[in-house]
Amino acid sequence: MGPEAARETKGSLAAAFGFLGTSGGEPRASHGEDGLPPVQAPPRRRLPLGAPLHRQPHRRLQPLGRPQARPPRRADVKAALRCRLISNSATTSAAVDGHVSHAFKRAGESSAWVLILRRSALEASGAIVDDAFTVECTITVITEIPDNVAAAAPAAPANVLPPFSGRGLSLSHHLGELLRRGTGADVTLVVSGKCFPAHRAILASRSPVFMASLFGDMKEKSSRSVEIRDIEPQVFGAMLGFIYTDSVPELDQQDGVVVAQHLLAAADMCGLDGLKIMCEEKLIAGATVETAATTLALAEQHGCPRLKARCVEVVAANLDAVMATEGYKHLMASSPLVMNDLLRAVRGRKS
User: Fold this and answer.
1) Which element (helix H / strand E) includes 163?
2) In what order do the strands lie in the sheet with 187-191?
3) Nearest to 23, CA basis, from 11, 5, 41, 39
4) What three-state secondary structure class fits 95?
5) Count of the separate structural domains present in the chain
6) Are 246 and 172 in contact (CB under 8 A)?
7) Judgement on whether residues 291 and 266 belong to the same structural domain of the protein
8) Which domain holds residue 339?
9) Same domain, 8 and 117
10) Is residue 242 in a domain?
11) Which of 13, 107, 172, 203 has a CA that sits 20 to 30 A from residue 220's CA?
């Protein structure tokens, strides 16, 4: 290639890279065919070929006579810029990119420069076809809602209902209120002279014993009053509360173990398996030297194998201390056969 051809090629490349910069001086005005000079274009900023680009800050013009208002506080704007050189050649697979990310805190702020590749690498990449190349730019912006915007959000209209939460609307809550007020009660349960207004349908749906007595062939079917024996009023009240609400707050009190012992017997009598299991769990967790013997007798009488195994374990580990309690005497009088289980447990610990 001769000198003239080289200058021509260099000139064409400089024209193609005009947005990056020029190697010559400012464009000169020339007369057109009509003899008039063309309109002068604004001068371009000179940048050496291969230098990175960056956005120039600009100023906002305020109208005269109007005070400049302080702009509202905005949240930081996080942005990422990725510039990728796309190959225009079918035989070249050049794909070079550069990227930068920045958090903009105020207007007019600029990020760092993005350098894709230098001029020498660009000319050798094969991405230039017919004195042109393609750059793909991708801008990703992530904004955060500031606190003052969230606080200034309009309130919901007065006629809009709040979201349904269901809190305080449980069935057990309403049934407990029904029991407490006695509204619509159609049967009275008498326990040692104390009356408990109740509802036949609820009692029968929870207990097979009440189902048989209130809707079976027994005389209580047509009676407005039913007498309950072999149970204390306090214990029956706790059991009735469980029938309506499926909970027993009395088990969490200081004397919860004693209450659980009485309730377990009442639950077994009325066929309330759920209440029986709750009492059994309470007694298993609260088994001590003082309560192990009486609880063991209770477990033996009402068929609670898990509770019985736990009590046998406690008695065998503290046999001398348990034998000194009143509960041990009651155990020997009510369930003498349980002694066989105790002896086997004691031998197992010694072997």
Assistant:
1) none
2) 194-198, 187-191, 225-228
3) 11
4) strand
5) 3
6) yes
7) no
8) 287-351
9) yes
10) yes
11) 172
